[in-house]
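Backbone geometry:

***
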Amino acid sequence: MTETELKKLLKRIEDGTATDEEKAFLEGWLLQYAQDNETAYQPAEILADAAMVWDNIATGHLKPTVNSLWPRIAVAASIVLAMTIGGYILLEKQAVQKQAAMNIERLVPKQSGLVLTLSTGKRIALNPSASGNTRVADGTQLHQKNGEISYDVGIANNESLTHTLANNSGNKYSLALADGTEVYLDAQSSITYPVHFKAQLREVSVTGQAYFKVKHNASHPFVVHVKNQTVEDIGTEFNIRAYESDAATTLIEGSVRVRLSATGKDALLKPGQQAVVTGNKLVVKEADLEETADWLQGKLIFSHRELGDILEDVSRIYGVQFAWQNEGLKAIKFNGAVSRTRKLAAILEFFRNTNKVNFLIKDNRVQVIKAQ
């Protein structure tokens, strides 16, 4: 805190424009003096004495100790020293908070978090950007290349090995199953599958969001288990999204049958249709295919979509938590598109520019507030 800043603060106290925090700070020091002195110490006198103390400290004529000073100057010196130290601490705290906010806005999609779980329960952390071959504990050989895992089909297949691939990163990752089916996993998603398909049915289960390009084989149907339903391929490409309490299956090409596990109710989808299952209720509707498959293109596309839902996706991708000024902000609907491969700041700026919401960074969380 400079002498000018000190004088300005004391002047604000004198003319009545100081904040409550500034008044409380100064009054705390004055009370120490008032307990031993009956004479009031007026703001103008504080200003004069404090300025004198500052000048003497700055020129080296007065050491920054107060015990040997006469009472009024002791108070003024205490104020100068406390405000100098306090101002430094305040500025340091503000600098730390500003740096934390900048760090959060500079976040890029999470780069790590690819985990393979073997039949034994052993978990292996994989590098999403790695390339090469890896032989794991159960004897299986993996190939990693260009963001995809595949298996050595020549491995002895007399065991029924099951693996689970979990993608906890913020980017998509792909898997080539033994039958040639391709699966793309979104952030915070997983798939459990046999290393070799040996049964009549080719069965897998998923959580989160996954896109399938199924290698069709009429004699060995491909079945996906998700929440309380099954999705059976009939020669197809489809997307499953099951982050929320409901699950949506969207057909891109071919044909799929969605069946409720509890009731057996089913629906045969045509390309462009979406089956949404909530509890034991199944509803078929037309889908927005561009919005459905946006994540495969590294985008977030939203059409009349609520902000709460959009930022849930952002949270999964960037690993950041959002807090809300009020719950009503979650229901604001937006149209548009943003890249999910850039820094978080670009997404926040998109919504800021709508003049509907703003964001504050506090305690390593992004607070969503109403735009002023």
